[in-house]
Design a protein that fits this description.
The protein is α+β, with helices and mostly antiparallel strands and 113 residues long. The chain is built from 4 helices and 5 strands, in the order βααββααββ. It is 29% helix and 32% strand.
């Protein structure tokens, strides 16, 4: 990671009855697509969960992108068969925000380096 990282924050809902399964597929023992994230310059990837209203849970994701062509890297990642399989498994567990098809990228309003 020699370049200055671009910080990405994102949010999506999660179905309450899928939280345990979602946590299981993201457990440390499941490699999932971690190597693909690194391959396409995504580092320090974290996902947090919070109940914001009764039975309304949301996931907040954060990662740092260190490549030089974000759009191209995301297109390559999207074309990876293993990533497509991963999304077929995890997408039904999630509830996109209104008007979105997947994770909603958040606008950064503050950063303390």
């Amino acid at each position: 990671m020699n370049q200055i990282a671009q910080r990405i924050g994102m949010v999506i809902g999660i179905r309450p009855d899928h939280i345990s399964a979602y946590e299981a597929v993201h457990a440390a023992s499941n490699p999932g697509v971690r190597d693909l994230l690194t391959k396409y310059n995504m580092h320090n990837f974290s996902i947090f969960i919070q109940e914001l209203a009764k039975d309304r849970y949301y996931l907040f994701g954060y990662y740092e992108y260190t490549g030089s062509d974000y759009k191209a890297d995301m297109e390559k990642l999207a074309a990876e068969p293993r990533n497509q399989e991963w999304l077929l498994m995890t997408d039904p567990m999630q509830i996109p925000l209104q008007g979105e098809r997947s994770w909603s990228i958040m606008r950064e309003v503050y950063h303390n380096p």
